[in-house]
Amino acid sequence: MRPVSALAVAGVAAVSMSLLTACGGDDDAGAAGAIPVTATDDSCEVGKTELTAGKTTFKVTNKGSKVNEFEVLKPDGKILAERENIGPGTSVDFVVNLPAGTFKLLCSAGQTGKGPSKDVTVTGTAGEGGDQRLAKAAADYKAFVVVRLDDTITKTKAFVDAVKANDVAKAKELYAPSRVGWETIEPVAEKFGDIDPKVDAREADLKPEEKKDWSGWHLLEKALWKDGSVKGKGKYGDQLLADLETLKSRLPGLTLDPVNDMAGGAKELLDEVATGKVTGEEEAFSHTDLVDFKANVDGAKKIYDLLKPVVQERDAQLATDLDGGFAKVEALLKKHEKGDGYVSYDTVGKDDRKELADAVNALGEPLSKLAAAVAR
Amino acid sequence: MTEARPGLSRRRMLGFSGASLVVGAAAGAGLDRVAFADEDKGGAGRAVPFLGPHQAGIATPVQDRLHFAAFDVTTGDRERLVRMLKEWTQAAAAMTAGRPVGDGAVGGVAVAPPDDTGEALGLPPSRLTLTIGFGPSLFEKDGEDRFGIKARRPPALVDLPHFPGDALEPARSGGDIAVQACADDPQVAVHAIRNLARIGFGVVAVRWSQLGFGKTSSTTPGAQTPRNLFGFKDGTENIAETDDELLGRHVWAGKGDGSDWMAGGSYMVARRIRMHIETWDRTSLREQEDIFGRDKGEGAPVGARKERDAPVLAKMKPDAHVRLAHPDSNGGARILRRGYSFTDGSDGLGRLEAGLFFIAFQRDPRTGFIRVQSSLATDALNEYIQHVGSGVFACPPGVQKGGFWGDTLFA
After folding, report:
1. Which of A35, A29, A34, A37 is nearest to A6 (CA)?
2. If exposure means fewest CB atoms within 10 Å of the residue's CB, which of A250, B84, B204, B215 is most exposed?
3. Range A6-123 classified under CATH 2.60.40.420
């Protein structure tokens, strides 16, 4: 079934237990060590009130006659987490990442937000659950980012040399390859808000007052393809290199977490493809969009490959869907290969673009679920 | 029809037991919301039972709005397709009951996108119906039997022939699977298609879709026929949702029709009919009325006083629309019409991009739509319309408890 969380499986089971026998829950996540919570129309019994911080599974059973709602409330009364629609006679596993503190566990029969509650105390610190594989994935990913950024800097140097020599043909040839490393790790670069606009802004995205400060790859792209000359543009090349070096100097102090930076970054890379590359907006003059497209996909694939052992264990169906999704996009891209690169995107017709867009959507949807699978 | 005629009571009875099944199944979640919507929002907010012998959205009182979508299946993996159809069925059962998809739109895991997209939160079920159909290309595409169902293609699911005047756009025609979403609230209909499309990513891709803003047909006996964008009531002699005898004879496929898995199902023909609004509006009232064979104000047939007075075809012009489309001119052929008006802005030449999204259900398109449409070759109305999109789909019987959309085909 669709790679929904164990929670969703439990929810569906309550709705249509017998509607679809094939989709009963392969619900194994919360079974071990779950805290039992028994709700009736006027009571809320919790099996354990001294809890340890971190990922905690509550097994909430509704023995009342009304649809119930389970809430974890912070001391200020705000909701930390809630699970709605727990039908009479059903039971759901609900996973919450608990920080240290005191909380109210509330059962609301009729889902009014009010009802009996129990106080619980949580001690310790919530972390990544100590999964060494994730720590290693994050370390490996950081090493990958460093290598890819070095690659972009090396190739950009050659590109800038050609720009400075006003060798238009050579610069055009080196333009797209110089961007590949960057496009592969773009979400990491975007963590430093100031670098991305300097090196990768498109003219169409600028405010009128920003146009005088425009710099980066796309300025040179326009000069090369539209004006046919980069005479006097050498300073922009130097600045591009300096900005990339600044990014490099910041990497040592950077920590990347598996959920937001890696899984979230993979999703962002596919978003980049879906909104910028498939439409041909990114490389409006050079039409080298497919080179960026491939680099974005490669960047997402690298992240997935690093996280895959964990994903396979926590959501095998998601891993299968992602394997299939990546394979399909890669196969489609192959159709448009030309020499070391890709055909000009303005020669890719509407039907082929639709096919690419469909494949990107097909990959982007399961990819958006990667973070939850890793965080589980 | 050889099987026992269902009769009024059977459909009624099953309709009600279907309702109780849904209520039973929904008891776990959101039932209170359905009941709430029912009491507070009146008829337009009600939920239409999802389970039953026939799919809802065919012999269901016509809702105000439409979102129709045709999908291409992008995988060759039968298991994956079946898995999606099961997921769709779950989602459809939830949405038609006024509940969100999966784990809902809010309150889930913070780092995950919500299962439901959320724009229908707080809206009543709005009589949402979701009706699925399978196009000829699902059974065989480019000579390939992708899902091992080629042999199960119903004889009645023919490729529609070219009709004179057709100007069909491939990007607005065909599709392996179609879903008709009808609701009294357009946001509810759009939400339904959007969420199905999202669940389907990787298995299906939207090929084309169409919004309809106003119904042009009624299946409710005695109700006035809503006007189309030409200002006329057309299709007065529709099949009523209460007329089980006519439904059994002209709408529901039977066991002996050549395709067992379609028994209780129906065939949908969808046509995007562009109307040349501006030239029509310059046409004299007399000519407009002659073209339809009805008067514009009341909708009465030529020579009669009331919309539902029996038409005397011989009194109409030989090329009048009603005369050519009438069952008496087509060997008794009848179809259940469920079309909607659309306006997709303007066409770049300052003209309304508007028309009728025609939908008809029938027991067999060969003796239904194709028969009638062939008669319309000489229709005087053709000067003002053009068929630009087309699809034909086999809509399987309704989902029973424990089943899923298409289970009789993929079993």
Report:
1. A29
2. A250
3. yes
